[in-house]
Amino acid sequence: MAQKREKPNILITGTPGTGKTTTASALAEATSLRHINVGDLVKEKNLHDGWDEEFDCYVINEDLVCDELEDLMEEGGNIVDHHGCDFFPERWFDRIVVLQTDNSVLYDRLTKRFYWRRPKTVIEKILSWH
């Protein structure tokens, strides 16, 4: 269970392409909460264990991410944007929002983004998570 904080921590999660970053950015702007995009944080702070050739992305070091976020999360006032949530401590979040989108919409979004470079099987794997 989340702790009592002056400002809440919110996790926005969902399959790639569901609108997590768009939603988190808009919510942060409307509320003056801090938006933390985990993917950007991993790149900026080198919180990874190298590059995954199949998925064309960094392999997140979950322990390093949690260590980096611990003080900010204790303070409160954060909107965390990430496609997964299983490695974050439950106590960090006051609310969790899971975004979903129809697979046909996801496919269009993913093929218009950088995902178009990836093999079709990777896009199919992403869609199967949904």
UniProtKB/TrEMBL annotation:
Region (Disordered): 1-22
Compositionally biased intervals (Low complexity): 13-22
Molecular function per GO: AMP kinase activity; ATP binding; ATP hydrolysis activity
Annotated catalysed reactions: AMP + ATP = 2 ADP
Name of a matching Pfam family: AAA_18
BP terms from Gene Ontology: rRNA processing
Name of the protein in its database record: Adenylate kinase isoenzyme 6 homolog isoform X2
UniProt organism field: Sesamum indicum (Oriental sesame)
